[in-house]
Amino acid sequence: MKMIKGFDVAVIGSGIIGLFAAYWARQKGLHVIVFDQHHPPHRYGSSHGLSRAIEYIYQEPSQQYLPWIQRTWELWRSMHQTFAPLDLLAVTGAVTILVETDPRIAQLQTWAENLDVPFKILGPASLRSRFPQLSISRHVIGIEEPSAAMIAVEPFIRSMIAWGQEHNIPWHFNEKVLAVKAHPDHVTIKTADTDYTAARAIVTPGPWLSQWGLNIPITLSRQLMLWVPKSSLPLSSMVNIDLLEDIRIAFFPEPQERWGTKIIADVPLTAGEKTCSAISVEDILTVNDQIRPIWSGIDRAPLIHHEPCIMSMTPDQNFYIDYWPGSKHIVIGAGFSGRGFKYAPLVGQWLVNMVMQEPIEDDLSLFRINRIDNLS
Questions:
Q1: Which residues of 6-16 are buried (b: 16+ CB within 10 A; e: fewer)?
Q2: Would you say 25 and 352 are in contact if contact means Cβ atoms under 8 Å apart?
């Protein structure tokens, strides 16, 4: 068994959160090593799918998120210049369509007003005029956020990895971490043929939170992403349709024309499934059945590509940002799927400051792991 020593911080898991943690740690001049059991960007988590949305007007579980949204958006803009000088961040706007009696409409309006974010309320006639391709009910309301943006996440991740290579970060991709152990003055990371030691570690395991004997609850769900040509479904902005228990579908006009239009819908998670499995014909038929009442063109449109996505979230929808049980040398960040993506630059800063025992101006008690015990 080989032994490799001398790292200040080991980052385990290189989804978007882990990558930002590695970036901020390296910016502090720390000697960083990064592990991932796959090679990012990969389809075994939720930091893939060509693009991701960054929206202000989104239902968050707590008012505490309000100031963080503004700060993280500013970080995204600066990160975009650092990692992706090409046009990988596109302001498309977004429209969220809800049943007219949904109490979230008033909540989202209040949220937008508190953030001082411009928005418009669209009635059924306006929605049908704006999106003639979609079947819009007479009993819905749309909330338009003109400032919402899409980021080409996979090219962005590749750019972050290239930056890390230029700044001497050793990327240990396709190297699964089998065990993490905290010692009084260091951390041991064990893989198949090597033991590594680092002064500290940041663990961002995505859907694999339960490995290494951690008894921390995480909720998994699965989505299916389909891409059709933009000529089949031309949209000028993102459309999120959330009709309570009946239909939850998102339509994304990809930043690059050749990628087409992405459609996202929920599909059942196979019992015991921990990672994204291959997509079955039944999965595609299930999603098509969900899409058809909204967009009948799904039966005629060519399918460019499809990918599954495992979403890992906490029981109360707030993230986990906390110390490893019994150790101040390891920090855990988990439960970020979906709405957590947009906070990645800020969360990366928090994780690095925590593991380095540096002051954090924000109150992160909302994200402590032991809060789940208090909920039950």
A1: ebbbbbbbbbb
A2: yes
In the three-class reduction of DSSP (H, G, I as helix; E, B as strand; rest coil), residue 233 is classed as coil
How far, in Å, CA of 95 to CA of 122, rounded? 9
The pLDDT mean for the chain works out to 89
Q: Where are the domains of the chain?
A: 2-48+154-216+316-375, 94-146+219-313
Residue labelled with tokens 């110390």: 323
Residues in the chain: 376
Give the Cβ contact number of residue 257 at 10 Å. Answer: 10
- pLDDT for 376 equals 45
| CB distance 364 to 321 below 8 Å | yes
* DSSP state string for 105-146: HHHHHHHHHHHT---EEE-HHHHHHH-TTS---TTEEEEEET
The pLDDT tens digits for 150-182 are 888 888 899 999 999 999 999 999 999 999 999
Per-residue pLDDT, 70: 85
272 conformational bin, left if phi > 0, alpha if psi -120 to 50, beta if neither: left
* Cα distances (Å, whole numbers) of residue 30 to 9, 11, 186: 7, 12, 15
Strand pairing class (2-12; 32-36): parallel
Pairing of strands 120-122, 140-145: antiparallel
Q: Which residues contact 200 (CB under 8 A, 6 or more apart)?
A: 8, 9, 10, 187, 329, 330, 331, 355, 356
Query: Measuring CA to CA, which residue among 80, 50, 88 is closest to residue 259?
Result: 50
State how far Cα 99 lies from the chain centre.
26
Contact 23, 348 (CB under 8 A): yes
The CATH homologous superfamily to which domain 94-146+219-313 belongs is D-Amino Acid Oxidase, subunit A, domain 2 (3.30.9.10)
pLDDT in tens, 20-73: 999 999 999 999 999 999 999 887 777 788 888 889 888 888 888 988 988 998
CATH architecture of 2-48+154-216+316-375: 3-Layer(bba) Sandwich (3.50)
